[in-house]
Design a protein that fits this description.
With 547 residues, the protein is an alpha+beta fold. Helix content is 37%, strand content 26%. The longest helix is centred in the last third of the chain and has 66 residues. The radius of gyration is 43 Å and the shape is elongated. The relative contact order is 0.14.
């Protein structure tokens, strides 16, 4: 009998049991399946909550890496000059040193500028010119920085713009057409890169001889003018005269860029130093960024005590592993920054009882006063060596294992790096370069500044920020720990969905079976009741007749 039939019997049959079979069946089915339904519901709710919590963790880790990148590019070093003649900026805090010097500037680097009056009678002899104005064909020879380059003008490029394009194809010089009158009074302007070594001249022995120039000589034609003579930047630092071909100088003060802007015969100061208050603010920001992630993980993996609710990730192996890894990355030794290892504790960063980090200002300032380079262990990865003839470098995407490695080289032989034999090769400047291709030093390169017997220690120190960013990139990747755990939880939900389907089918079967059984019972009771009613009526009639 169907459930509808049972309902009708229960509600309409006054000769039946009088029991509400719908409620009875529902109660019996629930009693048999409630425990299993509760278990499935709890598992589904827990899995969904964990998936949501890992989503929040991913978001916090992305914010974390963004803040670390900002902290890495900031610096606590302030660089300044006492004159507008120069400007000083920090380019690499990891190798920058304090500066306190005096300067003068006697010359600014300039490129040679030569101007051709194209309206002149010896040139195109017209005051209404354009880029398509024709010129003669022939060959011009450009002498620049001691090198000769032929410029061939033929029927395919014998226009003013064609000449400009050909010159601009040559490295170290730029050509342009300038309308001096606004109505076609064109001038051809040639400008070289800065430095006396980039002085140039044009020569021709054919129909392009009008473009010949010797700006440094007295026979320069009247239609050609030397607008600016090539010059070097010449300046002094603490009385030492220095000459450079460019006004942008990066090889005088390590980790700094010096720009020469103007001449200044008057002596002025130039300085660079770490400002302790700025450094402390930067370090506190680092601590706060780490704590934002750790606090979330500590809260969500914590088991409730004294009636408090458990965290959403309590007992989750992946979440607990991430928290342990973060603790290790901020407490383990840091190698590659010198002959001895250092710890964040050396900078006044300590771990509190609840697992978060804190910064002790007094210890931090004392450490920085003693060694400003200690900031590098947090903010700047660094390649270095204790030998001035060695320049160390390496991959930024696949760096070597942090640490210190011995290097030895004898002219004419292979070198050894961390007991690994490496064959070197010379670069374009003739410097010998040795690059490791395996082991702990893989991708570590050693460049010798001069080809001589050399031995020393080569170091690579990976900053705490770079280690943290590398770790976070790994666990956030498509194959990382968080994605793997999220996928596993979604698979669990699929399993729970199957369990729910099975339970729903079991509930439907139980309900049908109970309805059939109690429907049959209701029919039987009804028949018995009717039979009883009939016998009672018959006995009543007999008794009445006898009476």
């Amino acid at each position: 009998m169907s459930e509808t039939g049972s309902n009708l019997i229960s509600s309409l049959n006054k000769s039946g049991t009088g029991v509400n079979l719908t409620n009875l069946v529902s109660g019996l089915v629930e009693a048999e399946t409630a425990a299993k339904q509760s278990r499935i519901t709890k598992k589904v709710d827990a899995a969904n909550l964990q998936i949501s919590s890992f989503g929040q963790l991913s978001s916090k880790l992305e914010t974390f890496t963004t803040s670390l990148t900002a902290l890495e590019t900031d610096n606590a070093r302030t660089a300044a000059t006492g004159s507008v003649a120069t400007s000083l900026s920090v380019t690499d805090e990891s190798i920058a040193q304090d500066i306190n010097a005096s300067m003068t500037v006697s010359s600014v680097a300039k490129g040679q500028v030569v101007t051709y009056d194209l309206t002149h009678a010896d040139m195109l002899n017209s005051s209404s010119l354009s880029g398509v104005s024709a010129i003669d064909t022939g060959t011009l020879t450009l002498t620049l920085a001691g090198n000769n380059t032929d410029i061939v003008i033929d029927s395919t490029n014998n226009t003013l713009q064609g000449l400009v394009d050909e010159i601009n194809n040559i490295s170290g010089i730029q050509a342009s057409l300038i309308d001096t009158t606004g109505s076609g009074g064109l001038a051809l302007v040639l400008k070289s890169d800065t430095g006396t070594g980039n002085a140039f001249s044009l020569s021709s022995s054919d129909d392009l001889s009008e473009f010949s120039s010797a700006p440094m000589l007295s026979e320069t034609p009247s239609h050609v003018s030397l607008s600016v003579a090539a010059s070097d930047a010449i300046f002094t630092v603490d009385g030492l005269s220095i000459t450079r071909s460019s006004n942008i100088i990066t090889d005088v003060f390590a980790g700094h860029r010096l720009d020469i802007n103007a001449v200044s015969a008057d002596e002025f100061g130039i300085a660079s130093e770490v400002i302790t208050t700025d450094a402390e603010t930067r370090m506190q920001s680092f601590v706060d960024s780490v704590n934002a992630v750790k606090t979330y993980l500590i809260t969500e993996t914590k088991r409730g005590i004294g009636g408090a609710s458990d965290g959403s990730l309590v007992g989750d192996i992946a979440a607990s592993q991430i928290l342990r890894d973060l603790n290790a990355l901020t407490t383990r030794e840091i190698t590659g920054y010198g002959s001895t290892s250092v710890y964040l504790a050396n900078l006044g960063i300590q771990t509190e009882r609840d697992g978060t980090l804190s910064l002790n200002s007094t210890r931090f300032n004392a450490a920085l006063d003693a060694d400003p380079d200690l900031l590098n262990v947090v903010f700047s990865s660094l390649y270095s060596s204790d030998n001035d003839n060695i320049a160390a470098s390496g991959s930024t995407t696949s760096p070597p294992t942090p640490g210190s490695y011995s290097f030895s080289y004898t002219v004419g032989s292979d070198a050894t790096l961390d007991d690994q034999t490496i064959t070197g090769s010379a670069n374009d400047n003739g410097n010998m370069i040795f690059t490791s291709t395996g082991g702990a030093t893989e991708n570590l390169s050693v460049r010798l500044l001069s080809n001589q017997n050399t031995s020393g220690t080569v170091r690579f120190g990976q900053s705490v920020i770079d280690k943290l960013q590398s770790y976070v990139d790994d666990i956030l990747s498509s194959t990382g720990l968080i994605q793997s755990r999220t996928t596993a939880l979604k698979n669990d939900l699929s399993t729970y969905s199957d369990e729910q389907t099975d339970l729903d089918n079991a509930i439907a079967t139980l309900t049908t079976n109970y309805n059939l059984k109690f429907g049959a019972m209701e029919s039987l009771v009804t028949q018995l009741n009717k039979t009883g009613e009939y016998l009672t009526s018959m006995m009543d009639a007999w008794n009445k007749d006898r009476g």
